[in-house]
Amino acid sequence: MLLDLIYPPVCGICGKINKKSLCKKCEIQIKQHQVNTIDKTENKYFEYQIKILKYEDIIRKRIIEFKFQEKSYLYKTFSKIILNDKKVYSFLKNYDIIICVPMYIKKKLLRGYNQCELIANELASKLQIQKQFNNLIKIKDTKKQSTLKREERLLNVKEAFKLKDNTKIASKKVILFDDIYTTGSTVNECSKILKQGGASEVLVITLAID
Fold first, then answer.
1. Residue 141: its pLDDT value, please?
2. Which range of residues forms the domain containing residue 115?
3. What is the total count of domains within the chain?
4. 138-147 contact pairs (CB < 8 A, 24+)
5. Which of 120, 137, 150, 194 has the fewest Cβ atoms within 10 angstroms?
């Protein structure tokens, strides 16, 4: 990727040069922030949920830098953290397609990238599964979920997403990736659209849980 040419390979946690994007010292350090659970869900539009990290301390700091401070190269480190767990890796291999929560087009152009898309692209490559980043789209410029109460979050994302082509996910097992899980309103709304579009199963994986 072009990003690899612009930025040297570093450990995204400590910032030191590291070809594997995560040094051994930091790999041990982040274990205290790891959740790494695979849960069967109830009363959701998605059947399974994988949680990787707690949104706290150094993890929170790096995610904020990743999203808002143009440190897009951190996708390598976050992808590495996800795939280092053999149980998670094996579970993800059972799915057909990976999709990420889309950004509203104007916001994506302003930021220059969708951070979720960068990670999802890397996961697709390592898992050798299909990726779809232009099928599920965001059609409403919503407020930031982090600024809203629970009830407001539900209304904020209602009818904010749509599928361009249902046939591309019909009868497929879909991974839906997002960076942060708080109330789950966004991923549940996206999952609803995917299920209505014919997806046979939806697994939600989030980098961090708040």
1. 87
2. 33-209
3. 1
4. 138/102, 138/103, 138/104, 138/105, 140/104, 141/104, 141/106, 141/107, 142/104, 145/182, 145/183, 145/185, 145/186, 146/182
5. 150
For residue 33, give Cα distances in angstroms to 51, 132, 200. 11, 30, 32
Please report whether residue 4 resides in a domain: no
Asked whether residue 97 is assigned to any structural domain, the reply reads: yes
Which residues, given as ranges, of the chain have pLDDT below 50? none
Asked if the structure places residue 94 within a domain, the reply is yes
**Single pTM value for the model:** 0.92
pLDDT at 80: 96
Give the CATH number, domain containing residue 156: 3.40.50
- For residue 3, the model assigns a pLDDT of 53
Rounded-to-integer distance, Cα 165 and Cα 57, Å: 40
Residues 142, 189 contacting (CB under 8 angstroms): no
The answer to whether position 176 is within a domain reads yes
pLDDT at res. 5? 58
